[in-house]
Batch of 4 targets.
Target 1
Amino acid sequence: MPFDAEGLDYLSGMGEDNLDVYGAALDGEETLRECLEADRNQLVDVTVEGFIDAWSSLLPEVDRAVLTDEFGEDVIADVQEAIRTGVDGWVDDMLAFVKPWGFDLEEITTPTIIWHSSEDLLNPFAHGQWLARHVPAATSHLLEGEGHLSTWQAAPAMLDELLGRS
């Protein structure tokens, strides 16, 4: 979502931890880096249970429920690999999220598929709804009752749809 999207309160519906990170991003790179370094320190050796506790404001019950067994371990492994050498990529992403994109979404002509979920506390449902209204000819799957992580249960359908378009 463009941070300056007209007709959307970008931060509304986000979990508290996300609001803190976006606030730090808006304060600038130095503040953001300090914030993300603190988050990284929490995540470097975290267990699934520790992850759920540390990020409780970002994980609705539907996401907590899928963080079990192999999927939970895979999520943790992915998070830890992403921050293994530091937070530079995370900093770059967060700073990019709060800046204008430099193009109008109505200019998109490439076929686009949007998957979004009503219980997502990282990227609120209003973001997916807004994108569905503003990206021409987008195919949208706006899922009720799913979260940021539980939506991955739809990965086979996502891949089938992508392969069907190739």
Note: DSSP finds eight helices and two strands in the chain.
Target 2
Amino acid sequence: MNPRPSATPAGGELRTREVGGGTSFHASIDWMVAVLILGAALAAFTYPVLKYDDPWVFDPYDPEFSPAIFVPVFLFVYGGKHLVTAIRGTLLRRRFGESVAHFDNTAVKPGEALRGVIRCPVHFVPTGDYEIRLQCVQKISAANGNLRDSIREEQTIHVSPQFADPRKGIPFAFTIPRGALSTTVPGMRAIDMLGEPGDEVRWILEVKAPLKGLNYYAIFGVHVIPASESAA
């Protein structure tokens, strides 16, 4: 599929909205989380070593054995996951710069079309199609009280690199389903079409393309307003 941005409607100038990519922001958050968790893991490992002569007992049948020895291991693994993601985000930023999404409208409602282009300041030639995915993600409260992400809507299109120059714009076109949830601010609860309450909702637009070495990737936020509202 090779979507193309819509033309300016008759009778007025098309209002557009520019949204910067979130790769750098996410990389910064991952760096911060990785440093905090790995620091806690290091402290959890070194404190018993400094305080006790024989801090770690690995024999589960020994009376001195404590499951607490697995805490530093868990923290190292969890912190390492964020460290890998942070390094990848930093490499993406250095390789491709900051991509920008240009939307044809300042806001979109359920049942309307979401069109625009994604521009990257760096030229590259993918070895395959661009894959652009639109998702509606809602945080759901689990029975244990934890929050998890649930994908409520998802659409994917593919754009041939023959029809798209990343510096001029990679075109996309989606239709927001009627009855879809609208974007909420963090912490705000949403009401779905069945009247059931849920946690905060966010819409994201992702684009990726295969390359030799590091693949291209960028992510953007999409603002979906309720059908009863009008774009400011």
Note: Residues 103 and 116 are 4 Å apart (CA to CA).
Target 3
Amino acid sequence: MGVEESKAGTIPTVEGQAKAPPAAKGGTPESASKVSPEETQKLYTQKEADALVHVAKSEAGREKKVLEDVVVNLKAQIQTKESDIEENATDIEKLQTKVEDLASNDPERFNAIKELRVARDERRQLKADRSALEDEKREHGETVKLAQSTLREITVFEVAAEYESGDAVKLKELCETFEAKSDEQIRKIADTLWTKKAAVSPKPATPPLKPYSGITEGGGLDFSKLTPDEKIKESLRRIRKQ
């Protein structure tokens, strides 16, 4: 261990130990970079937040409707495939009977065997197509459930905000426990937990701006002779006075 001289006094050092870098002049202390929650600025006004929730809900609703239409279409395709498989089974049965009835040296028997082979290949393909459609329908069905869950979660947060001390997380857990899915069911649970917030009286509407005569306005001002910028400033001044 050695000793270094400095203006602040002697500083003991250990051989091989890196010296601590000096603090940068004018730097911001680490503690000063931390902002308390009280100092955090509000990112959105309530009106903006409501608008964002509305957009999210509308988007989820549209996605859910599109997916539901896809599922309906897939169900129709599956039904068509099942009908084709049934018809194919009838064809195979007829061809099998025809092959058995024809003599082994009959030229028709050879053609019947070829048709039977084609029909069986078609059956395998139809079953494969139906299976693929069922898998796709199942996947879209899961996505529809996710969209429904998203809509329900947005509704839960909207409803919780309508009550004093409303807790969206708690409301969501209870809705899942009691399998509450509709808006009415969600609100019934919220009603048993909290009290509705008092309705806020709407702000009085701003009286309409007095129309200009186009010639002179208060104090003999000739509004028609003002520049566009001056007209804007004068209009703002009059709005504030009302």
Note: Residues 161-197 form one domain.
Target 4
Amino acid sequence: MSDPPTHSDDPRSGATAPKPYPRTALGWVVWVGLAVLLLSLVNLDVYRKGKRFKIKSRQWAQQEARTTIAKLRVQQEAYRAEHGVYLGTTTEGEDDLYPAPGSEPQRRRFQPRIDHRAAWAILAPAMPKTQMWCGYVIVAGPAGSLAPAGPRGKSLFANRAPSVPWYYIRAQCIQGEGKVLVYETTSASDQLISRE
């Protein structure tokens, strides 16, 4: 019978078990390099997803603004047919947007009855959704006077008061990083003006 090995090279022996990696400075460099590579790939993926979201949110905002403005135009004509004037949504000016846009592209709730926005409650059927990418305002006035209009509205009418009741609609969509999309249209034209 032979005795079991007692030398220190036996891999089953706990005394000389190999050290876990990394054993050398080169091993540390390799592990750190792999960690950096993995983190950069994860960050690149997050960056790409963020960029895709920004592109998509811009497309969603554009589509929403065009659709909503078209529906608001129809709603305004129906209101004028019934009341003889167009309906403005503000007494505070052309920057009184609803829902109020934030600093980043995201949807905001459209609940005019809860937010005590009487004119918007009347126009609510024209809004396509209850969560909006853009904020909207409608400034309306009587024939022969541009008094309720702000600077942008006056420029839309070339500083000449229409001889009939009028309105203009502004949609402002936040795109982040200081970018804002603005869409404008008037009762006098079917043209939708886009500004950045």
Note: Strands lie at 108-109, 131-132, 134-141, 166-176, 179-186, 189-195.
